[in-house]
Amino acid sequence: MTTPADIETVTGLTEDEAAKRLATLGYNELPSSKSRGTLRIILEVIQEPMFILLVASGLVYFVLGDLAEAAMLSGFVVLIIAITVYQEGKTERALLALKNLSSPRALVIRGGEQRRIPGREVVNGDMLILSEGDRVPADGILRFANNITVDESLLTGESVPVRKVSADTGTPDTDIEGHPGGDDQPVVYSGTLVVQGQGLLEVRSTGTRTEMGKIGIVLESVERDATPLKREISRIVRVIAVVALSLCAVIVLFYGFIRADWINGLLAGITLAMAILPEEFPVVLTVFLALGAWRISRKNVLTRQVPAIETLGSATVLAVDKTGTLTKNVMAVQAFFSRGTHYTHDPAGTNSVPDVCHEVAEYAILACKKDPFDPMEKALLQLGAGDFGKTEHIHTNWELVQEYPLSPALLAMSNVWRSPNGSEYVIAAKGAPEAITDLCHLAPPEVQALAGHIDAMAAEGLRVLGVARASFSLADLPVRQHAFTFEFLGLVGFADPVRPSVADAVGDCYAAGMRVIMITGDYPLTATHIARQIGLENPDMCITGAELAGMSEEALRQQIRTVTIFARVIPEQKLRIVNAAKATGAVVAMTGDGVNDAPALKAADIGIAMGGRGTDVAREAASLVLVDDNFTSIVAAVRLGRRIFDNIKKAFAYIISVHAPIAGMSLFPVFFDLPLVLLPVHIVFLELIIDPACSIVFESEEEEPDVMTRPPRKAGEGLFTRQTLVLSLVQGVVVLAFVLVVYTGALARGFSEPEVRTLTFTTIVVANLSLILTNRSWSGTILSSLRSPNRALWWVVTGTIACLLLVLFVPALQALFLFGAVPMPALILSAVAGIAGIAWFEVYKAVTNGRRC
Fold first, then answer.
1. Quick one: what percent of the chain has pLDDT higher than 70?
2. What local confidence, expressed as pLDDT, does residue 555 receive?
3. Full-model pTM
4. How far apart are CA 592 and CA 600, in angstroms?
């Protein structure tokens, strides 16, 4: 039979052996949609309307016998495929990196050491430590079980958790009184949930060989629904596509019946459709959200639900746990209270535990788990491993025979120890001071006197635990934990220092218009002490869990507008806090780590689970996972979320504005019976600028200077606000006006059709680059934004200018683009007109002094 002490001797697989098995059997993951390879991306490209129109143009030129034009369009086809493969490949690599990072974590024993690894790297033969709240990563056999029950509803549909046994015993675990704990088998399945206790699992099956994997094979073909934002963009693209194709048909018919020129009519119609189609919209959304999630992951925040990236910029309330999020969650024993006197212990110093506190310290250590995750238990065991542990103790070599875990009904845990000869038993208990005083049945005057000592320790920012003991013989064995006769021994105080960067991060939140609410299970005085350290507003306003329980929903909604501390709160009360804040119109981001936090995480607008100490259940209910459990990372994610949304808006504004002059110059000559300027080859040239600009340049754009000094975006505010849409359209219309001036002016001055086309096209290209530069920031001018580095921008700008010079001055390319040689002054004037088209917007930004649009 494996015992808790035996777990310390388990060595598990070596890293080399694990690596060999991983290479042989593959990753421990269910079937999923495979990443898109180059061939699949190419197949998707050739189904796009723009690609089909381009091929149709090439066929028309081929029919006309213009083989050079047809060959050039074919070359553009290859170039577009290459650019798309690069863009999509970058997105796929980002998604793969996120998949590796967001894989559920598993605690394994390898080479005798415990370490957390991605669940997908678990292999057959691994020894896994399971704890309450863990999602089991693989099928296996329990080698040790301590009051462990598992929710198997995902597999069986049975809602009642099943108690598991240790395979080494062959019989169900029994309590020390000899009562059987139930009857079940020692097999635990992948995907099931540990709802209570601990266990040691030997992995037998991984991946598709698990019971869950067999189901996953059946579900492999099921496609996930698109996000609401993607559906909205798809709807807009479909509407515009219908308009574009309808206008295309009108142009073809107009040319055919009015001018009796069906071939040129077809070319004009295809050109117009290519000019109007906003095929960049879905590309931008996919690239920005995928790379945005990757960028956020570099700030130690993993995205489980992509829409959360958009919501981040709207957050108005951050409701966060104190321990481990605002503090380091690295506890150290700093104080004792025993026999009516306070004692200070310096964990970094040389003074050992005072003799009068030995009994309190020893029983606190005896009440710990053998292999704890709780930082306070780790601090106590570290105390036992130091000088204090080298002194003689009463219970050396005693055997742990029973654990009473924490429960919602009693916030205390107890361990039963048996003497080496088996004739004596002691029980050590520790927990919240009020739970320990309840166990000890202290009289009200005693409880009241003790409260003063607890408050004194809490006022110093210490977390406080009460310690008690009980002795009995097997013949007098009680049935319930409460039935033991406990003796109160004293208090232990733990220091948990605030993270150094939290105070600045809290200040950033206030500057950004976000409130910070601290939620903790600690005493109000402890929470108040921490609140003052981090600069929390209204640190003296605090609501306790008991007060919250007796408060009406209306009263809570009123209080939550100003209260910033909730102390002595149990996880189930977090849901009320979230709902109350949401009822006031707030957009709430909530952190949590436990099983009971899951409802609140799911109810919050942005649920943020702890990646380090959080349970799998919490992570599954959350939108984001905080890898380092650090409050500063949340603020960094909010900053990035605002930047990502800003950049998506900039990219979409640019797409709208740049298509206006292109579409206008495709329509104007047709309806006024003037020479055509834009043909398919010219549209493709422009698209080769537009595509990388909107998907790479704007995605790489740095944040606006006021990104964390302006109020949060209004909840539900879309990408296209009225002001954004109007300004984008005005940009495009003004540029179109300048292009028309160049076009009609060149015609009026007697320039030939190729020369007119040259001047007009130059104006459009320069205006395109100007639109990119001016839309980089809607709060700063081009000159100020040039100080912000963007390597992708300069690749696009220099590449465009180089290609424009080639088609203007290389005779062979001139002929392919149907250009003519024009005087240099006229060419310079057309370029100046392209720049002048956006000058008004630069003046507008300067006059409004950086107000957001």
1. 75
2. 93
3. 0.70
4. 8
CA dihedral 198, 200, 202, 206 (to 10 degrees): 40
Q: Is 329 exposed, middle or buried (0-12, 13-18, 19+ CB in 10 A)?
A: buried
CA 417 to chain centre: 44
Rounded-to-integer distance, Cα 177 and Cα 687, Å: 78
SS3 217: helix
Radius of gyration from C-alpha coordinates of the chain? 34
Rounded alpha-carbon distances, angstroms, from residue 838 to 662, 730, 780, 799, 835:
15, 10, 14, 21, 6
What integer best gives the mean pLDDT of the chain?
A: 79
Q: DSSP letters of 552-619?
A: -HHHHHHHTTT--EEES--GGGHHHHHHHHHHTT--EEEEE-SGGGHHHHHHSSEEEEESSS--HHHH
- Residue 419 tokens read as 């003497």
Q: Of 577, 761, 596, nearest to 669 (Cα)?
A: 761
Which tokens go with 311? 């919501």
374 catalytically annotated:
no
pLDDT one-digit tens code per residue, 206-241: 888 887 777 555 444 434 444 455 666 666 667 767
Q: 3-state class of 783 per DSSP?
A: helix
pLDDT given at position 739: 95
Point out the catalytic residue in the list 321, 371, 496, 522: 321
Up-side HSE of residue 29: CA atoms within 13 Å toward CB? 18
Per-residue pLDDT tens digits for 291-313: 777 788 888 887 777 677 778 88
Confidence of residue 830 (pLDDT cuts 50, 70, 90): very high
Is 824 in a helix, a strand, or coil?
helix
Tokens of 637: 């994610």
- The helix or strand, by DSSP H or E, that contains position 202, with its residue range, turns out to be strand 193-205
Q: What number is the average pLDDT over the span 582-606?
A: 84
